[in-house]
Amino acid sequence: xxxxxxxxxxxxxxxxxxxxxxxxxxxxxxxxxxxxxxxxxxxxxxxxxxxxxxxxxxxxxxxxxxxxxxxxxxxxxxxxxxxxxxxxxxxxxxxxxxxxxxxxxxxxxxxxxxxxxxxxxxxxxxxxxxxxxxxxxxxxxxxxxxxxxxxxxxxxxxxxxxxxxxxxxxxxxxxxxxxxxxxxxxxxxxxx
Length: 192
Fold this sequence. Notes:
This protein has 5 helices and 9 strands. By secondary structure, the chain is of the alpha+beta class. The strands form 2 sheets. The chain has a 7-stranded mixed sheet.
């Protein structure tokens, strides 16, 4: 494993502002990661997404009052029959929670993150508003989704002879406090 995977949280990652800000005064930051897509793919999670989810859970645990770390993740879905003929990517926010106890290892958190991803797949087509309503109806609090993880794997593509790249265009109006984008562009990983 790369040094990032062996000691993923020992060093602080520095991001550079890209000059944009949102309508609440927040800044956009971007950085190309020092690990490769292959290193991420061979991480301790069942998938690259689970490995990133575990990393985010460990980082978030530093700011949480307890061992249970919750956030939202974006998942694509085309489950509704009316979506069959539509073009595009349809995203839904799904709440997940991961236990990160003081004795947890990165590998054990990655195993839990893998299980959380598998469980979330079963509700990825359920609108977040229905998930929140069901929790409140059961007497529970709304799931914390103020931090959102968007993990994207972009395959290189061409338009005729031209090489085409993907880019996330922010609206300037955030819907959560923090959105972490992890994007794989071929072998390059970008964090923003």
